[in-house]
Design goal:
This protein is an alpha+beta fold. It contains four helices and nine strands, in the order βαββαβαβββββα. Helix content is 34%, strand content 31%.
Length: 182
């Protein structure tokens, strides 16, 4: 018998050359998705040059998690919203690069970290409306995030794993509170 999915913790990986662009995206996301409860420092995004042509060099990435838990299927609309925010930021001013901002929403459960994307690959599942989901990290006891062969290089870093450990603990506490109050 099918069971409803437990709520998940929504997060976003936001990157740009400009801290002001990252701040802008965090403010937009918080207004729509709810309060930011966990935030990484800005991290040098230097594990790949894949985005250099469109976004330039010297990128910074910030990981943010939001208070309001969500049903994972809601992340399709989150990715579509993020695409609109990227376009709005690009159109608001003069930028020296084609793509001044990238926002990648995802969700975290106790078992995994999932990123939403518009790119189809063999390891991604179609979620609808042109959006795919990729399990990027798996949680394995005792307390370790495991990468897959397709995990982005930056998501293999210890500082990312620390962020997701903190997110996982936040989610666990929230779910326990929900269970004890029902």
């Amino acid at each position: 018998m099918p069971r409803p999915h437990l709520p998940s913790l929504r997060f976003a990986a936001i990157f740009s050359q400009q801290t002001s662009a990252i701040d802008w995206a965090c403010q937009r996301a918080a207004q729509t998705w709810g309060e930011v409860v966990i935030q990484s420092p800005d991290i040098d995004f230097d594990m790949t040059s894949y985005y250099d042509a469109a976004m330039g060099a010297g990128l910074k990435k910030r990981l943010v998690a939001f208070k309001n838990l969500v049903d994972p299927v809601d992340l399709v609309s989150s990715k579509l919203q993020a695409i609109e925010w990227e376009k709005a930021f690009r159109d608001e001013g003069e930028h020296s690069v084609e793509r001044p901002l990238n926002i990648d929403p995802g969700y975290l459960t106790e078992a995994k970290v999932v990123l939403m994307t518009t790119k189809d690959r063999d390891h991604r599942l179609y979620m609808g409306e042109g959006i795919f989901a990729e399990i990027t990290l798996f949680y394995q006891l005792p307390g370790k995030w495991i990468s897959s062969r397709w995990t982005y290089p930056d998501f293999k870093r210890d500082d990312y794993h620390e962020f997701f450990f903190e997110c996982r603990e936040h989610l666990r506490k929230d779910l326990q509170q929900r269970l004890s109050s029902s």
